[in-house]
Amino acid sequence: MTNASTQALLAIYLGETYAEIEVRSLPLNKKSKALFKKNYFLPQSSLKTTLNQVQKKLTELNVQITDSYVVCRYLERLKTFRLGGSVVQVVHRGFENSYVVENTSRVSLAASALVISVADDFSTEFFTTEMIRIKKINPDANKVVIELDSELIPTVDIQKIKDFFIELGFKIFACDKPQDLLQVRKTLLNAGSEGTKEEIISELKENFKYGDGENETCTKVHFWIKDQFQFNDSNSFENFDLYFSSQDFLSYLLKQSKKNNLIHFDLENWMILNSEQKNIWDSPWGLIHRNYNVITPIALHPLTEILIDETSRLQFSKTPASSEPGPMIAGRGVKSLLIDLFWSDIHSDPQFKTLFPQLENCLLQTKIESQFKVLEKGQRSESKELTKADLIEFVNELIDFELELKLGHPASEIEKTIWTGHLSGLINKKSVPFSWTDSIYQYLSGK
Amino acid sequence: MSSHLDSHKFLSLLSPFKNASIMNSKGELIYSKDADSFKTTTSRIVLFQIAKKYLSPKPGDIIISNDPENGGTQLNRIFFICCLHINLFVVWDAELNEVQFKIPLTPLVENNKKNEMIWQALIESQPAAEKFRNFFEKQIQKMNQMQVFKKFITSVAAESFQKTWFKLTKSIFEDHFSLKSYGQHQLSIEYRSQSIKINAEADEKQNVKAFKLDFSGTSMAQNFSCASHVVESGLIIEISKFYHFEKCLSQPILDHLKLVLPPRSVVSKSIATGEYNFELQKLTRQMMKHCLNQMNIQGKKTEKKFNIYSTAYLSLNSEHLQFSNFLSNSRIDFLIGDLFDKKILHHSEREYKAVLKYRLDKTSQLNLYGVKSETDSEIRWIKINGEIAHHAQFILKKNDELSFEWKI
């Protein structure tokens, strides 16, 4: 890269299933135009590949990214996983996996086999022996959560334990109040999410680095946390905050709009967000302290499957389908998902051209239509069979119904609400087209 | 156009509630939802009928009651009978542990206005008036939220809609019922030194599909009993779950379920405190589930022996917190909060252990109910101050110890 390269900022919405990426040159102002903008359906293109494609394009354009601004929903994919496969826990004896006892149906945050229970009179040899056991179970264990109370074990001894693990190359996550199960969960979640956060940062830094040797520089990564972008190296946020990045960003947009509610219809989730705040997050792993704006999900999800049940009636699946292979509109899906109902609207909307390029293919369009014909002909009905058009009408009706119930007024009263998300136009024709990256640049240029 | 997918609208309408029913003026069930661990399907129908008979609720009215001897279950569970339309009612229940006195059928809201005299006497005069006010105002708000849907309410209240809906749900019931085996199964157990007999039968006679459950021959209830609607509520939910018609549980389905609960079987006169409700509902549900599974197992060789498993329900009421904790053979929901110092809190290989020391200066009330199995007492127990506790009310004082070991 020469000195003549264009300095630019990268804005990225890194969702659970898709990424929206835009680059604008510096200096940034309200008239800045996009040097590059594209959406990627992530199940078909990994983050690494996606960023690599962006990097190649920017090299062609002779553009250099100084800072990357990330609004993130990427960690949502971890919510169904058992986390902490490489996380060791050091706990007081009698407190092994304590965080589970309050609710046994929640997802696990750490591997039970990687627990080291400490009596009051432990020795260094004890830890050495325990580490031999741990390494046999998982040689890649590289993070440790130390859940020890300084009122029970002297601070100096806790420090010795930390030093022991630091020497072994472990990253330390400390929880100084092991009686507080909310703090235990938060610390475990920080440890369990470290790998994914590092993946995002390292991919951005790897793809947007310039110069060689001592002159090598790379992009600075900023995540949206609470009400602003926070520089990754500033220690101003914790890993678990990343689960709220996109929600926090929408809360910021709601606050800016001075309206009562934000209605979000995107490719990944449908919900209402309001200005009421809660301070305890009922996470998939149990309760954790965190301030956030209350969200009310809409019962239907864009990836809800439309299927024929065991009595041959049309039904909506209880849980959304997996994002891999995703909806039929993305090219590889074989199940009829709710979002597929709206394929012709999506096809005619230019904002989806780069996200669902396969939709240009007439064969795919025919396949989608045939799938809905199969559902129409295969169903048993006491009255008239439900056609695709009936289903669209029903879905719209149900959404209107839910919105009105949850808002307390018809959703059409748009002066009381702000609409966001790429699919908001399908539900409310009057809504303004939405772009995550546009909103990010609006924030950055208005700073 | 009416279709079975309308159940999604009913579910949305009832989303603010854990347990709720939509009914018409005849008391016929249009839609039902039971998400609480204690089921009240039939209790809500019974209370509606009583309210209708004595107070004839009109649009914009909310009648409340908690009387365990008159359609209710426990004192802390308040039932709300709300009239949305002359032919459409929503009945729901919600818990407020502070309520430890009987509320007979009472018109809390009339024509969308609070009954000031009742409000003053029932809510504002309480020592915990703010808690009462918040609770009841929240419930009234739920009616206001539903009333917005005038068009929907009018359409569901129409006889023509209900006729079509009932026809649909009956057809869905018949289809699901046909997917399982017909047959019968008998089960007899000893519990609290008494005998409980249950005979379950799924059959089709003259094109009528029906499920019959008969407790005849049981000689259980003397002091240990509950109202029949309490047991029926649990049994209906167990049957709906097994046959997968929870999403359309309505009157035509109830009409196909025949539950024979003779007086002095597991049910008899209701008890003023409702203290055996949870235990009897859970126990009979366990028996019901076993019978349903057995009826659908091919051949006697695979017949499984029935073992009762212990369950426990703990309601804990302190000045600032109200917990309802539940332990069964498949899950533990045990919110500890800041009421206890944790001495041990441990999980390994599906075994859960806790030793908790009550830490507040002010006392808290702990109510403990549940099914007590003789066969799992080694792996599932609760102790208070070192003594096995099963069924009682306790006042927790500072440094009292609550402990449990529980395998799931």
Q: Which tags fit this structure?
A:
heterodimer; A: alpha/beta; Nucleotidyltransferase, domain 5; Rossmann fold; 3 domains; 10 helices; 18 strands; globular; B: 408 residues; alpha+beta; Beta-Lactamase; Immunoglobulin-like; 9 helices; 31% strand
Helix content of chain A: 25-40%
Please report the first level of CATH classification, the CATH class of the largest domain in chain B: Alpha Beta
Helix/strand-derived category of chain A reads alpha/beta
CATH-derived topology of the largest domain in chain A:
Nucleotidyltransferase, domain 5
What is the total domain count of chain A?
3
Strand order of the largest sheet of chain B: 2-1-5-4-3-6-7
Shape of chain B: globular
Identify the CATH architecture of the largest domain in chain B: 2-Layer Sandwich
| Count of DSSP H/I helices of chain A | 10
Verbal overview:
The complex is a heterodimer of chains A (447) and B (408). Chain A is of the alpha/beta class. Chain A folds into three domains: 6-78 and 196-241, 2-Layer Sandwich (Nucleotidyltransferase, domain 5), CATH 3.30.420.40; 79-194, Rossmann fold, CATH 3.40.50; 306-386, no CATH class. Chain A has helices at 47-61, 124-137, 155-167, 181-207, 245-257, 343-348, 362-378, 388-407, 424-427, 436-446, and strands at 6-14, 18-25, 34-41, 63-72, 87-92, 115-118, 143-147, 171-175, 209-210, 217-218, 220-225, 228-231, 261-265, 270-283, 286-297, 306-308, 314-316, 417-420. In chain A, helix 1 runs parallel beside helix 4. The longest helix of chain A has 27 residues, at 181-207. Chain B is globular, with a radius of gyration of 22 Å. By secondary structure, chain B is of the alpha+beta class. The model of chain B has no long low-confidence stretch (mean pLDDT 92). In chain B, helix 2 (41-55) crosses helix 7 and helix 7 (228-243) packs parallel to helix 9 (277-295). In chain B, 29% of the residues lie in helices and 31% in strands. The A-B interface holds A 94-98, 100-105, 112, 179, 181, 299-300, 310-316, 381-384, 386, 390, 394, 398, 401-402, 404-405, 408-409 and B 1-5, 8-9, 11-13, 15, 145-146, 148-149, 152, 164, 167-168, 171-172, 175-176, 179, 244, 331-336, 341-348, 352-354, 408.
